[in-house]
Amino acid sequence: MYTYACDVTKDDTVRETVSRIEKEAGPIYVVVNNAGGVSTRPFHMETMERFWYQIELNFKAVWSPSLRFWVDVCVLVRIV
Prior knowledge:
- The structure is a single chain.
- This protein is an all-alpha fold.
- It has one domain.
- The protein is built from two helices and no strands.
- α1 packs across α2.
- It is elongated, with a radius of gyration of 15 Å.
- The two termini are about 30 Å apart.
């Protein structure tokens, strides 16, 4: 079993982590997007910076790893 940590809000980090996984563990067959977060502070006490970080985290947690995975799958399908 392999485990990897990755900051999904940074596209470069996602690309580097996916490349590292493929080199160390082989092809990726399953992607589990299990990242996200929520602030426990009342909305009126939240800063704009923290608010946008939550938006980035919860959006990119799904989009960035999935996009990287599906681009690779589409390239593979075209080759085959």
